[in-house]
Amino acid sequence: MEKVKTYLAESWDEITNKVTWSKYSELQGSAVLVMVATSIFAAVIFAVDWVFRTGLEWFYRSV
After folding, report:
1. Measured between alpha carbons, how far is 45 from 52 in angstroms, rounded to an integer?
2. Could you tell me which Gene3D superfamilies the record lists for this protein (predicted)?
3. What are the residue ranges spanned by the domains of the chain?
4. Quick check: pTM over 0.85?
């Protein structure tokens, strides 16, 4: 049980005193970047899916 107490105490000390936390404005910028990148990725996946679906529909109608 002593090891658990030591671990928790050292973890709390590290989180409160040794970790450098980002500023709120940096977090906002990162969140916007992630949302934009995710939207672009989703649009590319949608386009590829649409091209394959349309191509396969055309192929099956032709055959």
Report:
1. 11
2. Preprotein translocase secy subunit
3. 36-62
4. no
Specify the residue for token string 């030591």: 6
In tens, the pLDDT along 1-58 reads 999 999 999 999 999 999 888 999 999 999 999 999 999 999 999 999 999 999 999 9
Which residue in the block uniquely carries the two structure tokens 């990162």? 30
Q: What is the DSSP string of the chain?
A: -HHHHHHHHHHHHIIIII--PPPHHHHHHHHHHHHHHHHHHHHHHHHHHHHHHHHHHHHHHH-
